[in-house]
Batch of 2 targets.
Target 1
Amino acid sequence: MLNKKILITGGAGYIGSHANALLNTLGFQTIVLDNLVYGHKESLHYAPLPFSHKNVFTKNPTASSQNLETNNFAPTHTAHTQMAENPHSKLTCHTEHSEVSKKLDSRLFANAQNDKEVIQKRQDDKILNTTSSKTQTHSTDSNILNTQDSALDFLAQLVRNFNGGGVNTQDSILYNNLKSNLNSNNDLSRQLHTAHKNTTFIHSSLSDKATLDSIFSTYQIQAVMHFAAFAYVGESVKDPSKYYYNNVANSLSLLESMRKANVKNIIFSSTCATYGHPLHLPITESHPQNPINPYGYSKLVVENMLKDFSHAYGLNYVILRYFNAAGASMLFNIGESHSPETHLIPLLLQTALGQRETLSIYGDDYPTKDGSCIRDYIHIDDLANAHILALKYLLNGGKSEAFNLGNGEGFSIFELLECASRLCERKIPYTIESRRDGDPATLIGDSTKAKEILGWKPHFADIETILSSALNWHSNQRY
Ligand SMILES: NC(=O)c1ccc[n+]([C@@H]2O[C@H](COP(=O)([O-])OP(=O)(O)OC[C@H]3O[C@@H](n4cnc5c(N)ncnc54)[C@H](O)[C@@H]3O)[C@@H](O)[C@H]2O)c1
C-alpha cells in the first residue's frame, strides 16, 4: 500500500470526485480538501454501480439504484476526518462477482504487445458474447451488457496503463500498489466497494493556510491535484474579485505550502477559456491564450505562476486544459451536481426529466451547421483518467507541460437535444434566447499532444454514451 498520498483540492466537486474515485480504485490514498461551497461530501462516499445496473435511462427511473447507499455518515465540521465505513451499508451488486472479475482479469492481463492484445481482445469478445447470450435472459436491454463491458474495458485500461510497462522501475511503489489492489486473485466487487475508504476528507478552505501547512506536515504528499476554484464565467464578470481571490490568491497559498514542504508535483485544472475566441480550429496548445473573461484570466494567471515556480523552485506541473466535462461515472454512483447549474447537459436532461420547464438555447443564428453553438464534450471518466496518466507522467520524471483535453469532435446544441430526446423517447421543450456575450460559435480542442505524450485515449467518446451516463445519474440523482 502506498504510504505517500495524493492531495486533491476541490475533490468533492464534480471532476475532482471522479478523479478521486479512480485514484482510490487504483489503491491510492487520497486527502481531499474541500470547503463544500460547491462540492458534495456524498461524492466521497461512493459505491459501485451494480454491474447489472441498467446504466441507461429507464422509463421507470425509480427502479434502478434506489438500493444504493446514500450519505448517512455524520456531518463533518472538524478539519481532519477519516471517512468511516458505514456498518449498515445496504450496498448490493446484482451480478455474479466472480464472473465480472473474470471478465476484468481477461482484460487486465492481456499482453501489452499489440498483436497479442488484439488476439486477447478477440478471445475476450468471444467469451463476452457467450456470457452475454447466457445472461441475456436477465435483461431486456442489450445496452446493459454493452455498458458493463465498456466499463470493465475502461477499468482494465486504467490498470494496464500502469501495469503494462512504461512505469519507471524506480517508481515501483505505483506498480506494487496496483498489483496488490487489482489483481486476478482479488475480488473486484470488494475492491470497488471499499475503494472509498482510501479517501480522507478535510473540510476546510484553501484560504486556511494553517490547515494547508498542517496537511503537508502530517501526510507525506506525493503530488497535488488542484481542482478547487470558482468556475462561473458570468459571475466572474460581475464579481472578478471573488475569482482572483479564490482562483489566484488561494492557488498561490497552495503553491507556497507545497514549496515549504518540498512537494514538487502538481496537476492543475485549467480550461479552454484561457484561449478566448478561437483563431483556428481545432485549438492546439500553441494557440494564443487571450481570455475574454476574469474566470479565464484567473486560470491563465495560475498557469503562469506554475511556470515561474517551476523555473525558480523546480516545481513539476501538468496543466490540463479541459473542454466541456460531461456525463457521470460508469463505475460509481457519482455524477454532476452544480448549484446553480449552468452546464448544458444537466440542464438539458433535467428538462427531459421534467425537473425544469424548458431549456434555454442562447442563439440559433451562429455560423454553424444548424445555427446553435458547437462544443467539445469529454466524458468525465476519460477526463479523470487523464489525471491519473498525468500523475504517472510526473512521477516518472516527465517535464512540465500543458495538455488540452477534449474529444476533438464538436456537437451542436440541437444535436444534443435530438440525441437526448431519442434516449428519453420524449420531446424536450426549449426556447431560443438571444446570444450571450462572449460565446464563440464553435470550440473544439485538439488533444493529440495528450494522446502522444501521456498515452491518453478517450474510452467513452461517443455522445450517446456520454448522455446516457448523465441521464442515468440525473434519473437517480443522489446529491
Ligand atoms: N466542469 C467543466 O467542464 C470544467 C471545464 C474547464 C475547467 N474546469 C475546472 O475544473 C475544476 C473543477 O471543476 P468542477 O466542474 O468539478 O467544479 P466544482 O464546483 O464541482 O468543483 C470545485 C470544487 O472546489 C471546491 N472549492 C472551491 N473553492 C475552494 C476553496 N477555496 N477551498 C476548498 N475547496 C474549494 C468546491 O466546493 C467544489 O467542490 C475547476 O478548477 C474548474 O475551473 C471545469
Note: DSSP finds 15 helices and 14 strands in the chain.
Target 2
Amino acid sequence: MNVAVFSLIAVIGGWYLLRWMRTISTRSSPMPHVEFDGDKSRLRYARESEKLIARGYRDYLKKGQPFSMRNVVNHRRPLVVLPRKYLDEVRNAPQHEMSFPRFMENLSILRDVGGPLITDELCHATRVDLNRALPHLLKQMHEDCLAGCRELIPECSNWTSMMLYPLLLQIFNRIGQRVLVGPELGRNEDWLDLTQNYTTSLLQGTNSVRAKYAPALRWMAKYLERDVKVVYKQRQRGAALLGPVLKARLAARTEKLADSHDDAIEWLIDEYRRTGRKVKAEEIAQDQLGLTMAAIHNTAATVLSTLYDLVDHPASLDDIRREARQAMDQHGGINRAALQSLHHLDSFMTESLRMHAMPEVTVQRLALVPKTFHDGFRIAAGTQVMFANRQLNHDADVYPDPERFDALRFYDDPEELNNKQHHFASVSDESINFGGGFHACPGRFFAQDVIKLLLASLLVRYEFKYPEKGQKRPADMADNLVVYPNVTVPLLIKELAFGDISVSGML
Ligand code: HEM
C-alpha cells in the first residue's frame, strides 16, 4: 500500500472516529421508555397520557429517574419527562440552551400551520409592559368585566340553564382585547370575532396536519390543507384590521401628538424599534394573535373550573361571597386594595388550580445544545424535556392528603401578609402550574386579576347549581397533554334577590 492510499484511509478513518465520538458524547443517557400496552393509537396518547405520566411518575420520577414517552407530533423524537432534581438546571438554563418558544414551535408545528411564534417582542411586552401597566389598567378591566356580564349574560330572575364557557370566553376576550389593542379595535366586532375564534381555528389546523402529514411533508400543508388555509386567511384579516390603527398610531408619534395609549400595540412598536426591526402590520397582528392565544382560553377555562368547585363547596362559596361584598363595601368597589383582600378567594382558586391544573406538564423546553446535568445525566440537542405538573400537584410528599379539596390549604392569616407563602400566581419548587424561571408565564398576574374580577363580580350577583340533584363536577377532558374542565355541561344560574346583596348596583 503506498503512502498516499494509507494517508487517505487514515484521514477518512479519523473523520469517522471523530464523528462517532461526537455522536456518543451528544447522545442522551439511556432511560426507561413508558408506553401503553395494547392500543397504541394517536388518539389514545392524546386522551390518556395522564395515565402514562402517572405510571412514569410513580415508577421513575419519584426515584429520581427520567423517562421517555411517545411524542405524537414526531414519533422519532420521544418526549423526556424529568424528575424534580433537574428543575433548577432547566428553568435557569439560558434561552440559547433551553428554549420554551422553540419547544412550542415544534409542539404546535407553528411554522407549518402559519401560527404565531412566541417572539421576544411579544414576551417583553407581557413581562415588562403589561405588568407595569396592570395597576392603572385595573379600572378599565373592571368596567369591561361589568359591561361584558351585563350585555352577555341573559336576564335570569328564575333558574336558567346556560352553557357558561362561550360566555366566559366572550367576556375575557373583551377585557383582554381592550388591554392588547386599545379602544379602536377593542370594541370592533370584526376584531373581537377574529380573536375569539382564532385559537380554535389554529388548533384545528394543527390537529389536521399532525394527523395527516408526515413531519417531512408538513411544509406542504399551507398549499393543500383547508384548515391551514383558514389560519392564513385569519392572519391576513388580522393584519388588514390592524393596519389602519397601526398607521394612525405611528402618524401620531411622528406628529408628536399627545399619546394617551398604554396597550400592547404601543408596547410592541417600542420593542420593535428598540431591537431595530421594521414595524409591520402583519407582524404586530401575529404577535397580538399569539397573545390572544396564550391569554383567553386558559383564563376562561380556569374560571369555569373554579366555578364547578365552588358549586361543589357551598360553605366556601358563602365565605367567599361574604368576603367579596365586604371588600367592595370597604374599598368602594373593586380596586387593587379590594382584590388584595380576597384571601379566601385566592386560596380557593389556588386549590382549584392545584386539583385541576390545565397543563399536564410544564417547564417544557427544547434543548438547543447537548446538556449534561449535575449528576452526569445527558440529553442530546433536539431533546424535548418537561416536568410532570399535575402529578406534582397530587404528590402526597408535597401536598398532604392531596386528593382532598381543602379550600383553606393556601389561606394565610391576613394579619401576617408579609409572610404570605402562596398566592394564585406563585411559581416555586412546589408549584409549576405557570412554569418557572425566565419563561414562567409573564401573563399570570394579569390572569390572576381578571379571574378574581370576574369571579367576584359573578358571585355577588348570581347563584349557581347543577341541573340534576346530586350532580357533581363533571370529569375533566384531556387533549394532548392539556386537561380542560368539561365545557359541555350547562349550569343553572339565578340572580340573587335584590336586598340580598349590598353591592348589587355594581353590575
Ligand atoms: C390561567 C391562565 C394561564 C396559564 C395556566 C398559563 C400558563 C403558562 C405556562 C405553563 C407557560 C410556560 C411557562 C414555562 O414553561 O416556564 C406560559 C407561558 C406564557 N404565557 Fe401564560 N398562562 C396563563 C395566562 C396567560 C395570559 C393571560 C397571558 C398574556 C396576557 C399569558 C402569556 C404567556 C406568554 C407570553 C408565555 C411565554 C413566556 C416565555 O416564553 O417567556 N399567559 N403560560
Note: Residues 100-101, 118, 122-123, 126, 291, 294-295, 298-299, 302, 358-359, 362-364, 433-437, 439-444, 446-447 surround protoporphyrin IX containing FE (CB under 6 Å).
